[in-house]
Amino acid sequence: SAHGHKGRHSKGAKPQRTVQDAMRAVEAAKENLGVSKEGCKKHELYVSFRDLGWQDWIIAPEGYAAYYCDGECAFPLNSYMNATNHAIVQTLVHFINPETVPKPCCAPTQLHGISVLYFDDSSNVILKKYRNMVVRACGCH
Amino acid sequence: NFSTDNEVRSSFIQRRLRSQERREMQREILSILGLPQRPRPQVHTKHTAAPMFMMDLYNTISEHPEIPRFSYYRPVYHSSLVTPQDNRFLDDADTVMSFANLIEHEQDLPHRQHRREFRFDLSGIPDEEVITGAEFRIYKQFTREHFDNQTFRVSLYQVLQESTNSDLELLLLEQRELWPAEEGWLAFDLTATSNLWLDNPEDNLGLHLVLEDSRGQRRKPQLAGLVTSKRPQEKQPFMVAFFRANGVRFRSVR
């Protein structure tokens, strides 16, 4: 939030952190640590119906590659294709106000469906399409 | 922060789940599938007609995963279970469900030997689903003996009312001419009937199938090659219904 306070700090008050300060702090932190946490990425997660012991009622598939999203949504986000505009803004605001504003979340940006074929209690067979079961792509939100 | 199919991180080693983890995982997956608990089917042979037909449908839609809702080509009379080449197109289905015939044994009582009864339990259909199409499917085998040039007429009736004696109130749903040399699946439209049964479960009194020869004489359905019994398994009659989700599916709060 900008309220036109620029140059109106009273003498002796703690100076307000700027975006530039935040950027410098991030770079310094990265250099000091020598490592950067891994960015937001899609990770393998295979859900095996067979391993869950469900072969007696799930006819197909045996399992499916569900994937999940994990990683840090760290500054600078604007170089990444899949970060939302708001996520970029939120990253900056997080550095200005880390106690109150969280970092953007690493979450799915594209999801796909799967079909499952299974028996019900009455031995009828059901073929159902479940949307949004498979992560296609991850990004910062 | 951008990853697609070709950028997958393998971040952990595969391991067996502990029993507690396994139970939690089962609970989570069941919740996602919208099931209160795992089904426990009494019979789970995959080699009867209905599961085979459903497997064909599953394979059809799995080959075209980009299609948002699967499409199904309705065969009227075909040797294979699902044939994408012909007939009416049934679309907009989110769910397909097959129903096994609940009448276990064929009744050869004198007043019943020329008709066959079929009954299907539709009580398992979720409330939020709307039926977009339904069919009764019965297999006709090739028959030659005695009936080379004779046609048959098969009629499918909905039972409207049962009484203690042999009298029944029936509603004719559909009639077909059959030739002895023909072989394949016959599909009878049950869309209106199944919607009625769904709204009024007490009206679900089943179906009757009646066969007549060219002189109007009632005959046993088997004479025309109609498979009305449990054998062969892969040709058992069954019912199939297509559903569309009515609005948003809500998962239960845990």
Task: Give an account of the 3D structure.
Chain A is α+β, with helices and mostly antiparallel strands and 141 residues long. Chain A contains two helices and seven strands, in the order H-E-E-E-E-E-H-E-E. Chain B has helices spanning 19-33, 49-62, 191-199; strands spanning 8-9, 70-73, 77-78, 89-93, 95-100, 115-118, 129-140, 152-162, 168-178, 184-189, 207-213, 218-219, 238-245. In chain B, the strands form three sheets. A five-stranded antiparallel sheet of chain B has the order 3-10-7-13-5. In chain B, strands 6, 8, 9, 11 and 12 form a five-stranded antiparallel sheet that branches. In chain B, strand 11 and strand 12 (218-219) form a beta hairpin. Chain B is globular and about 70 Å long. The two termini of chain B are 32 Å apart. Mean pLDDT of chain B is 77; it is low at 1-6, 66-79 and 83-90. At the A-B interface, strand 1, strand 6 and strand 7 of A face strand 1, helix 1, helix 2 and strand 5 of B. Strand 1 of chain A pairs parallel with strand 1 of chain B, so a sheet runs across the interface.
